[in-house]
Design goal:
The chain is mainly alpha-helical. It is 70% helix and 0% strand. It has 6 helices and no strands. The longest helix is centred in the last third of the chain and has 28 residues. The chain is elongated. 31% of the residues are buried.
Length: 138
């Protein structure tokens, strides 16, 4: 179904989300490299809630939204390549997440996440309508 939606909106949404996730994770880890020794020596064990640079950088990077966004974006691209229309709830979840992030913290790429979620939602709806139309014609 992916090839039947608006010109690649599902695919583009997936790529946008994957790129933002990859960028967040890559840049975040680069900026957090001074904390790696504390992470790898398990100094956060029992202290993960404390407001330290190492704890903050851990929660903002490997435990942040970069990995999930990369995974969701990759899953969407994978599904599109196989002609599988992603479920609408996925688009709504990413949209809600993006809106909250865009409102609470700026500057972030969250507005681009919102745009990608809207593209995804639109692509899912168009693909769903195209699937339903032939069934109604029978």
């Amino acid at each position: 179904m992916g090839q039947h939606d608006m010109p690649g909106t599902i695919k583009w949404a997936g790529w946008i989300l994957a790129v933002i996730g990859t960028g967040h994770l890559g840049l975040g880890l680069l900026v957090s490299s001074s904390s790696f020794d504390e992470w790898l020596t398990l100094e956060l064990w029992g202290h993960w809630w404390e407001d330290t640079p190492a704890a903050n950088s851990f929660w903002a990077n490997p435990a942040g939204f970069g990995w999930p966004l990369l995974l969701v974006g990759s899953l969407i691209v994978w599904m599109d390549r196989r002609g599988i229309v992603p479920p609408e709830f996925l688009a709504w979840a990413v949209l809600g997440w993006g809106v909250v992030c865009a409102v609470v913290v700026e500057p972030t790429p969250a507005p681009v996440v919102v745009i990608a979620a809207i593209l995804l939602l639109r692509g899912i709806r168009v693909a769903g309508a195209q699937v339903a139309a032939p069934a109604l014609a029978r």
